[in-house]
Amino acid sequence: GAPGDADVAGYRLYRAPSAAGPFTLLNPAALLTTTSYFDTMTNVAEVWNYRVTAVDASGNESAPSNTASAG
Q1: What is the pLDDT of residues 23-67, one digit of tens each?
Q2: Secondary-structure breakdown of the chain: helix, strand, coil percentages, each rounded to the nearest 5
Q3: 7 torsion bin: left (phi>0), alpha (psi -120 to 50), beta (else)
Q4: CB atoms within 10 A of CB 50
């Protein structure tokens, strides 16, 4: 689902050193419930690739979003 869908329980955020992966889940303990995230585990000069999935109340996970890079 898209952000704001009533059936979305939260989001899983994944990070990788390249767009090809491998992607690592950044929030295994709990779903994100906002659409913003501040990654404190990277250095200023590094470029990382991120993608997000939506998870519904039943635990079903969507296909990953397009990959976005930041750094």
Answers
A1: 999 999 999 999 898 888 888 788 999 999 999 999 999 999 999
A2: 0, 35, 65
A3: alpha
A4: 19
